[in-house]
Amino acid sequence: MQGLVFEGDRLVSLAEFPDPSPRPGEVVVRVMASGMCGSDLHYYRAENDGTPAESRCIGGHEPAGVVESLGPGVNGARLSVGQRVMVHHYSGCGTCMNCRSGWTQMCTSAPAKVYGKNAHGAHAQYMAVPAACVLPLPDELSFCAGAAIGCGTGTGWGALERLGEVGGLDLVVFGQGPVGLSTTMLATARGARVIAVDPSASRLEQASKFGAADTVNPDSVDPVEAIRELTAGAGAAAAVETSGATVAATAALDALANWGRLCAVGLGGTIAFDVRTFLSRQVTAMTSWSMSSVQQMACADFVARRNLPVDDLFSHHWSLDEAVHAYEEFDKQSAGKAAFVF
User: Fold this and answer.
1) Which CATH class is domain 155-287?
2) CATH 3.90.180.10 in the chain, residue ranges
3) CATH 3.40.50.720 residue window(s) in the chain
4) How much is the pTM?
5) What is the pairing mode between strands 113-114 and 126-130?
6) What is the number of other CB atoms lying within 10 angstroms of the CB of residue 321?
7) What is the per-residue pLDDT for 204?
8) Cβ count near 307 (within 10 Å)
9) Topology of the domain comprising 2-151+291-341
10) Segment 288-332, tens digit of pLDDT
């Protein structure tokens, strides 16, 4: 089969790999959709270190598809050939407390495998993973929706889970790319009054369609002042920072109400504050690393029950042989979410 590899220096290529066979405890998934994630661009834009393409890992970490085959020892009562599935794109030892609770990316016994980073990922026709990584995809959801929930949309869900109950609260979401739009959609469905912040007018328009009560363009107004005006001077009770920009993280912290909570998920930014300034405001700042496998299933079930339009996040669907052009377009970060479909 062919698999997409990131060579660095904004180059991708398709290399030949053997079709995987399931080892004991493994499942081979026939990939139907493989999402393109903003974190892919870290590998796409990295310096080429000269490693041959065929020696690199297949990229992609947002797969959804159907079970192709089961390895020895896999519980056939839980998984069956032809079943529609998602993949939690991390695996660990499977026995430590974090792994047992679904947080395999935080395995305490050994470095976790991150599919698409240090183990073969989903930008290929087939993918072999431990059975514990394979999760049911509700029949109501498309394969593309399942792929999005596997990372981008699931990251928004994980951030909301970290913040706790958000129903009835003023919640501001900084950044309205796919993760931010997902957060806006999910937080609205969970009862929050969402204020969406982004410098792109088209993304703010999409945020309104996904339920944002108000939108703020930081290129036009001071976002902190605008948020305080929209909250009768109190500030936001909760905030999620998805852009990875330090200026956005700083504004999110400044825009919090007393006792406010900030969850940062965007990579690349820095959060720093003067204790004297914030001591009396009793704010909380935290991070969230995607979601657990348990939360991934909960997110999928929630999206299915509420009939949320996750498919509307996608602006592009590509075939694998369009990989070079697909990542050239994705690198511009000017459109919506994208996926390879098989």
Assistant:
1) alpha beta
2) 2-151+291-341
3) 155-287
4) 0.96
5) unpaired
6) 12
7) 98
8) 10
9) Quinone Oxidoreductase; Chain A, domain 1 (3.90.180)
10) 999 999 999 999 999 999 999 999 999 999 999 999 999 999 999
